[in-house]
Amino acid sequence: DAGVIQSPRHEVTEMGQEVTLRCKPISGHNSLFWYRQTMMRGLELLIYFNNNVPIDDSGMPEDRFSAKMPNASFSTLKIQPSEPRDSAVYFCASRKGQVMNTEAFFGQGTRLTVV
Amino acid sequence: AQKVTQAQTEISVVEKEDVTLDCVYETRDTTYYLFWYKQPPSGELVFLIRRNSFDEQNEISGRYSWNFQKSTSSFNFTITASQVVDSAVYFCALSEAEWTEYGNKLVFGAGTILRVKS
Q: What contacts A107, CB < 8 A, 6 or more positions away?
């Protein structure tokens, strides 16, 4: 199993540009999470999907952030327009089933730098 | 609402010392799961252990051990005879059992940076 795959691994962009982060969950996992990690805030849950449906997006910081999951094998997190304070490592994680007893498997993260 | 607190921002120890990482959680549920993850300098998050709320038996895996105290809502992690390779950020996480057709989210604490010096 290839695990959770995120792309790109690193992204440097200028303020105001649109940024799209991509995630391919583990096959058969039906919950998908987007987290953001910064020194100041630690690991924050931005949004999570179950069976491709967004369930809780209360962690999405602003309207500039949006996430989609058009099918079971792909999700995107988009920031438009990007700002320097969006610089962080963004993790995608997937989890099998809808119950609380399964661990989430994480991708290697996308390190975003907005200059 | 579920919440996980890791009060220790950073801990530094000398190799071979024992170290305990604290985790305190809040939940309305009587059934829930707790997790520990390790994030080494390479950046990936590695699952270490899961524990359900009905199992308060301590668990030991090699140099790692976990102490679950439901009465104090704590799930502490101890590394015995620490090694330099244990240097990492350690996260505690909680998943509530409240069943919804929408699944259960996984909420993390802020993490504890562990530095083990040789």
A: A3, A4, A5, A6, A23, A91, A92, A93
